[in-house]
Amino acid sequence: MKLLEYKGKELLKSVGIRTPPAIVTDNKSYVNLSYHKEQYRDFFFEHKEVVIKAQVVAGKRKKNGLISITNDFGESLKLIDGLYKKEWNGAPIDTLLIEKCLDIQDEYYLSILWDTRSKGPLILLGKGGIDVEKGEKPVSLAISVLDGLHDYQARSLAKAAGFKGRMMSGMASFVKKAYDCFLQYDCRILEINPVIKTPEGLLYAGDAKITIDDSGVARQETFKDVTEIEDRSLLTERALEARKIDYHDHRGVAGKTFVEFDGDIAVLASGGGGSLTVMDAVLEAGGKPANYVEYSGDPPKEKVRQLTAITLGRPALKGCLVVGGRANFTDIFETLSGFTEGVLDLKELPKYPIVVRRAGPRDKEAFAMLKEFAKEHGLDLTLYGEEMSMSKAAKIMVEKAYGVKA
């Protein structure tokens, strides 16, 4: 889960890291610039100069016109209105973070991430700013998960990055707090660029790019309402809804990875390798997948029900392929029962062909149930077991969807 900047800064503030005074606005309430107008007016004239930031997960936001600085109240209203009229990656900009513009003496870069080589957190510290990748290489420190980050290590890291005296101690404390945040909130990546140093020698988080491990979301109370904190500019509404299925229910996987395409054949696939093989087979047969999604690990029927309703809720579909290899422990009757319930949740029953290729525990019961279901509701449903290859089933799906021999 990639957090928007304002939510990332809330996490940083919770561990004692300074962030600039700020307010958050959203365009659902900011009608004709009326949302919190009085509060915003008071905020602006208290701080005199503000930074207006579009809340999207993207690099180079300032270069892309998504961050503006102004000391003129009238101009700030026009900038706010202008950002709400923009789009990023084809999605509207929903939220703005408006902060006090700090007096910047220097800028630094801090990143903490999981390193596959050391099998633990890796801390990077160095010069920061808008073109950080063009600057000097940051110093690094690999941390043992069992030992944690000691004070002397944080001081040594700050010293190696060029800090001296009080600033060395200040940066060491900043790094320690960031590391606490990284562990406490199950982060995969925590990046602050810039870490702002003011003339008074105070350190602030000028930005926050934080990615939370999806497996840790259910443990975190602060992430319950994911639609308000996760970047939506990279996700369609259906993809966002599909991801939510797994956030607070870890019985199997259903929707964690959901990608929409421009095609018209819905695909509900089981098994990572098999699902990719099926996508290739659909394309090779001349079909156009509407999506890629995988459900596996014996998910309960209510999760498959949600995923089915989301996937088949897309308009103008010409076919649906439910496919997977032979399952070892996934209950085929349970998951295909979820599929039928999801179909019934649709506003209109599918008039397009449905091809199911599944095998595994309780598959005979599942197929008998599906035959009755199709007969009762007048569905064009074709069933195959493990005697049919997944690639051949995909080809048959394409032929049925388009009414031509693939």
Q: How would you spell out the order of helices and strands?
A: HEHEEHEEEEEEHHEEEHEEHEHEHEHEH
The H-level CATH homologous superfamily of the largest domain, spelled out, is Succinyl-CoA synthetase domains
Distance N to C terminus: 39 Å
Would you identify the regions where 5 or more consecutive residues have pLDDT less than 50? none
Oligomer: single chain
CATH architecture of the largest domain: 3-Layer(aba) Sandwich
At the fold tier of CATH, the topology name of the largest domain is Rossmann fold
Number of extended strands? 18
State the secondary-structure class: alpha+beta
Helix count equals: 11
Global shape: elongated
Radius of gyration: 26 Å
What proportion of the residues is helical, as a percent range?
25-40%
The CATH first-level class of the largest domain comes to: Alpha Beta
Largest sheet: 6 strands, antiparallel
Taken together, the total number of domains comes to 3
Residue share in β-strands: 25-35%
Mean pLDDT: 90
Please sum up the structure shown.
The protein has 406 residues and is of the alpha+beta class. The chain has helices spanning 5-14, 37-47, 73-84, 151-160, 165-184, 237-247, 272-284, 301-312, 332-344, 363-377, 390-402, and strands spanning 22-26, 50-54, 67-70, 87-88, 91-92, 95-100, 106-115, 120-127, 139-142, 187-197, 203-205, 209-212, 253-260, 265-270, 291-296, 319-326, 354-359, 381-384. The chain has three domains: 21-100, Dna Ligase, domain 1, CATH 3.30.1490; 106-219, D-amino Acid Aminotransferase, Chain A, domain 1 (2-Layer Sandwich), CATH 3.30.470; 235-402, Succinyl-CoA synthetase domains (Rossmann fold), CATH 3.40.50.
